[in-house]
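Annex B. Sample input.
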Amino acid sequence: MDADVAIIGVGTMGSMSAWQLAKAGVSVIGFEQFGIGNDRTGAGGESRLFRTAYMEGKEYVPLLFEARRLWRKLEAETNTHILTLNGGLTIGDPNTDVMKRLLDSIDAFHLDHELLQGNIAKERYPQHRLFPEDIMVLDKNAGFLRPELAVVLAVKRAEDLGADIKRYTTVQHIYPNRESVTVVTNNEAYQVRKVLVTTGAWTGKLVPQLKEYITAKRLVLTWFASENVKAFKPEKFPVFARLRKGYRLTGVPTLDGTMIKASNTKEPDTVFKPNHLNREVSRKELKEVGEAVEQLLPDLISNPVRASVYMDAYTQDHHAMVGWLPGMNNVFVVSGFSGHGFKMSPTIGRIVTELIIEGKTKFPIQHLAPSRYIRLNDYI
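Annex B, continued. Sample output.
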């Protein structure tokens, strides 16, 4: 037997799972078709939001509390700064479903926050143009992460703890049976007890049963300059998510403090062939995000100075799949985080470890069960 667990895809979820499994004494072999921290995963783009007040549902809040603790743990183990907590604003109409869910998560867990509106909101954060119905919710435990660095550090830590990570190695097939799984790569075959599939945009290709339920989406990230750079430093400008009609504008100050990354991620395009991701950003895409910035962040110069394209895996309900595939007691899937998984990835790694070792977890992940999509007869 080559390892207890094979991790296929050592990106966001794969790296955090490798770290947690190796730390628990599980023998791990990881396969990554590109380099570690590459720009073909959902981890690209230099920064990712961290939030605890959560518009996607209050059931995520316990996972986010644990993630904050684990991010600090990874920082301590690697002696490197990863998470900056400079606060986070969610701005929108309180009568919309997303804002109601956000406020519900705050009430359910008594989150440290401020509710700002009217002139007080405008005076506090004048960088944002507000409309009469808008409120600002300041999440005091929000901020931003350094994603590529975090992935590299988690993998390095996993290797230090004994994990064997094989770079530039593509898994072509997996063949599970009752006792083990055969993993066939472009180089050779391996025998392992269990397989963890964390392949993101490539999940449907590796596990055809999931192709109908997990779709790769193309994310365009854009950066903007300002003539008033001081107003957009992290200490003055919290990360934000702005919800207004056709826009879902999210943003974060850049690490060097000279620009703002502000991206419209409301309706990303489908990627039918992840190996052939279209990295060209059209004038139409640049114009649309520029119009959003011009309307909502008037102190930014509305033409992007930089744009990059990445991918993530989406499910129909925008909640991931985390768990054993029905009918397969040795194939575990972690995929489909739909653009909001990076912040909680260390917790997912811990959940994976608990379920593989102990068969149970204390974290509320019923809403992430693959069985809500996949049934036993899908394999027949």
